[in-house]
Amino acid sequence: MTLALATGLSACASMPQKTPPPSNPAPTSVETPTSTPETLTAQRAGRLAATGHNLEAAKDYIRAAAEARGQTQVHYLMEAAQASLKGHKPQVAILLANEVLRLQHDDAALRSAALWVRAQGFMDQGQTPSAKGNLEELLAISGTPQEVRAQAMGTLATLYTQEGHELTALNFLIEGDSLLSGRDIAENHRRIRALLDSQPTAKLQNWQGRSGNPLVQEWLAVALITRQNPDPQQRQAAISAWLTAHPGHPLINFSDHRAAITDTSTPNPALGSICALLPSSGPYALLSQAITAGMKTAAQLQSGPAVRALRTTGNPSYTAVLFKRGIKEGCRAFVGPWLPQDINAVAAVRKPSDPPIIALGVVPGVQQSGLYTLSLSRDVAAQQIAVQSYGAGYRRAYVLYPQDSSGAAIQADFIATWRKLGGEVGGVATYLPGHTFTDEARQLLSGSPGQDSFVFLVTNAKNANAAVSSIRLVNKRVPIFSPALLHGAALPSDTRGLSGIESVDMPWIINSGQSWPQAVQLLRTTLPNASDAQWRMAAFGLDTYRMAERVLDKDMTSSLAGATGILHFVTHNQIIRDMEWMEVENGRIVPLPGVPKPGT
């Protein structure tokens, strides 16, 4: 939908590549030549933008604006703002959009385009209150194109949901429904149902009395009917009676699922789709949302099969039911389940002729034709460090990990793999993040580790500086390998203490704008306030979608240079992710072709 918005903005706010002559010129005026300097500069900017050189295009548009006057100048500034946003310079985009708004008072479409760019720039900088203000002002402009208005409402719904103002979000989603068509309506209905499903019954009843929008009240009434009537026939009869008593409800049908309401224009919403079978509750809910957002972004950019979310509840039996229902409704492939109990449940009911699955975890003993596995766990990075460093010639590891359950699990996976390979563990110690190393941890490194030794450090971006600095106070030279250093969306603000650390993680996290810049732009709209963990999972969504496409194409031989690393199929239908090695040198990421050799 964001691509449709970009097209809409381009149509509304793009400038002519030649300066147009006045529609009714005075007799004494001289026609502007078509080769004026600003036109040539703008034409070059257009070519640069078309080939993805957005920052260079922005500079040329600014030069063209400086040489032009009037409305043409404003259009050039608008193009420069849009190119700056695409080039990941939100602050510049905001300044240029400000200038457009200062100069332009009559062209409603151009003002709405500038407000949209400014809102995107604010979201990129994490300034969501300012972004909301711009989006709401954009909605107040009568000349805002319909597709831009719909996208703004959807974005506002996301922002208000994240702030806990779900009723306001629901209003935006339902008000925007009339602006949509086709698949966009189906996706909007899915969002409405998901928001309603996540609320307790008492809150929905309270909302009925608070909302002044008849359509919102009707959606709430139908959601409550589905909860009060577990029997499918009784529920259908109750809904039909309610619709008869309340004419004018949106044209939607109600299936036998408790809250499955689907658009009449798509009788089988899953037909031909890649379906995400992921948890919708508990600690996995927001992570599942990010995976699904990544999948939908990949579908949009690849122009591939649509993505439909099938939300599990933590009940394995219900997960199996959703899987069979997805097959009946036309899912061509599934990404998920994720949780071990759900993988077991689906594997138990799946037939060899059923659509393929990419499960997001590995369950011992579960192997089937057409069932592929890709683990999202950071434990995999720990295992890979063990395999690759042993292959590079290292033989002894010193293990440091924080005193929490996650750190304990990661180091245990590392040690198990390391010892299985024949590696020696020189010692293991815990530390408390943010505190001075314990005597045990200092003694661990106080000797003189040999050239074939390294420290396996479990940490995260927030605590990495302190941990690395503490190690360097005891030992200046020992290599430090960490599976979790860069699991977040960015390096810590102070990276001076990280110099010399080598780490393994995904290229998306190192430089997502370089890995797949178009995906970054779309995902920052869909997930404007994504946590580090969500941003990481969105990258997995991008890659699992493309791997599902390969499964459908029966292409199991070639590798995929994805956002999370190099992915390829191996024996037993496993998908392995080869993560990249890098080092932090003077606060900069330096990619490495492989593991640094011992003694280097």
UniProtKB/TrEMBL annotation:
Source species, domain of life: Bacteria
Low complexity: compositionally biased ranges: 26-38
Species per Swiss-Prot/TrEMBL record: Acidithiobacillus ferriphilus
Alphabetized InterPro entries for the sequence: LpoA, Peripla_BP_I
SUPFAM superfamilies: Periplasmic binding protein-like I
Keywords assigned: Membrane
TM spans (from-to): none
Name of this chain's protein: Penicillin-binding protein activator
Region (Disordered): 10-38
Listed CDD domains: PBP1_YraM_LppC_lipoprotein-like (cd06339)
